[in-house]
Amino acid sequence: MSETGTPEPILRMTGITKRFPGVLANDRISLEVYEGEVLALLGENGAGKSTLMNVLCGLYRPDEGAIYVNGRPAEIHSPRDAYELGIGMVHQNFMLVETMTVAENVVLGLQGLAFRPDLAEVARRLQDISAHYGLEVDSDAYVWQLSVGEQQRVEILKLLYRGAEILILDEPTAVLTPQEVEDLVRILRRLISEGKAAIFITHKMNEVMMFSDRVTVLRQGQVTATLSTSETTPQELARLMVGREVLFRLEKEPCQPGVPVLEVEELEALNDKNLPALRGVSLTVRAGEIVGIAGVAGNGQRELAEVITGLRAATAGDVRVNQTCVIGCSPHEMITAGVGHIPEDRVGVGLVGSMSVSDNLALKGYRGPELSRGPVLVPSAIQSFARRLIDAFDIATPGPETQVKFLSGGNLQKTILARELTACGGLLVAVHPTRGLDVGATEAVRKLLLAQRDQGTAVLLISEDLDELLAVSDRVAVMFEGRVVDVVPATGADVAALGLMMAGGQPQAEGVVE
Amino acid sequence: MRVVIEKRQAVSQSARILVPLISFVLSLVFGAFLLFLSGVDPLVTYAAMAKGALGGRYALSETLVKAIPLMLTGLGVSIAFRMLFWNIGAEGQLAMGGVAATGVALFLAERMPSWSVLPAIILAGMLAGAVWGAIPALLRAYLKVNETITTLMMNYIAVLWVSHLYHIPWRDPQGYGFPGTAQFPTVAWLPRLFDRVHLGLVLAVVAAAVLWFVLQRTKWGFEIRITGENPRAARYIGIDIARNIVMVVLLSGALCGLAGACEVSGVMHRMQQGLTVGYGYTAIIVAWMSQLNPWGALLVAFLLAALLVGGDQIQLAMGLPAAMAFVLQGALLFPMLGGALFAEYRLRIIRTDSGGAATAPGIGMEEAR
Fold this sequence. Notes:
heterodimer; A: alpha/beta; Rossmann fold; 3 domains; 6-stranded mixed β-sheet; globular; B: mainly alpha; two-stranded antiparallel sheet
């Protein structure tokens, strides 16, 4: 293979096929990674990106296909095998022990470790590595003290400490602020300049353009193209990824706001650490209107959603749903009051992974006369209810009895939406409803939210994606440090001014900025 | 060659059945080793145990008598475990059920219409077990007190109180100083189906059917399953978890209390030593081995009862300590807990050639199938 003039790929995967019950996740996928490059792996949710990378780092066994590292066939049965071949992965959900320090996390699981590891020595080596690559982390800090961006750096450090040559990053930017994304670009450039290689999993075209040298596009488990990044365009990538031209603009009817459905006045609440998270939030959402909440994560958005859905107690102020005060109501009473909720954490909160799709669709409706008679459930009614929703919301599942954890991210979210939109009685609280979803699923979710609005539902949309807020909402409220800084109409809103307010600027300064 | 552990894609269904079975066999192998060390032929001993527990009508009925309290407590423990409430207190709840049933039988039965005596005994037993379970349940639900500790501690209180009662205040004055209460009036005797097998067997089967129905077909059972699988989702969809914990543990305690009532009114006809012999602890093994399935609990309870009765038999027939049965019982749990691993993981053996390099991936793949 290496006799020709072309360089030997550091990693080659050929004909990788992986089947799950009812799903062909990877269909004869081949890809190559060369020294000193970033390969972007682009594809929608469920296209098979994560499966392929889990094969590469030893979490899954492929049904067919072979992997070659430095031209030699590799047998990868566990993450440890992968480490030994110099392959390491930074997962979307970090694999860190929060109650341990950075240095302890780095050596955790290393083989040939002394009974009492010399952590001072580890810390020194870590300092060398982090200084070399510009990965600043305090190696004595406990992981729980670190921001998400810093935790990601710890994950990368962990791989470098173990001598990884091929780094796999699974949607690394999903949790980062724009500044942290720039840091990550810089770190990656530095790494590959030393001959390391990286595989960058993403479904965002702009990240492909920003980070990668080459890009392999996956669709429905197959490779649709492998291109040089400099010779392609975001439009071409989008077409290859979804198989058609994507509508980046959303058609939207003008909003017809009705009576106020949600009224929040001077609301105050504490966060998980018992520190003030909401410091007097006032907000109104009317029937048939979508109000978006913009803000950098951690400025009270999550707590606001939790108070409105009854999951968190307010310490002061007033919340009214349909003119009824709901302060002190339990989550169940909020559901009865007509509040639907698309939670931030789909798998951890919104669904019961080990239960079937039909059970998950019935998670709220089971109390009602449609699915139960007195205290007894009616299985046939639950079945037909599930089939109806699976059809209506186009949920791709082998069947209603499939365990929900086997669905892809987009279909998990469709399952939640199907349930919440059906059960919702006037107010819908949607928290990051499209985060982590691919283009197709994002479009579907946004259309569903708009359709719900057009039917007269009041929608409170919390998102970190300013483009989404402007595309979907009718009005945008900016939150900063537990307060609503300003509420502006979405049409004609100035992105720069919104960004300034999200960073703590005053609304009065708007004119000055422009 | 080396062995690696890989995660399975889905929880293996066959492992769910095979793990308890193989665990049972492994515990017998371990026991055989112990028997061998004690200088007896393990096969002869096991044959004697099997004959003593299952060979013939008398043996079978004795096994069923012991299976009844294991079934009821096993069901009780299972339903609590479903809600992730680690009820180690079945023994105490059984004891309190026995106390309440005894109280009704000794002091009230003769003043009650005879048709109402047995229902009163059964209800009193269930109520007492439920109340005894309610204390740790309330502490856990509303004050987050660890229930493993509280339920365990309350066992000691209940067991010692039972002992105190039949030794001193409730001791039969005509009993020649023998520790135990007076015999119950016959209206307070649970009817027998055949030999010593009493109505408790029917109650246990009914309880299993009810539990199965509740879990699979009712709103409340749906909530219990959701809470057990994902407590955060349960809270999000508006399930009152604290209230459900209390309700489930009331049911759990009631079943264990029922076991106690059946023991005094169906088997002993008095309260004496022998009420608290560890059924409530064996119930934990029943729950675990049956994987919290009500029908499975009945089956496993019968198996473990056979082990206990067989153990008694080898004491008589071969002069071995009856504790051998408890050793086997304990030995069951280790492979069970270890074996749970194989429901989610599988072992693979990887052959490497003499040069130490891995074989071609294709071959490894063949082995995987």
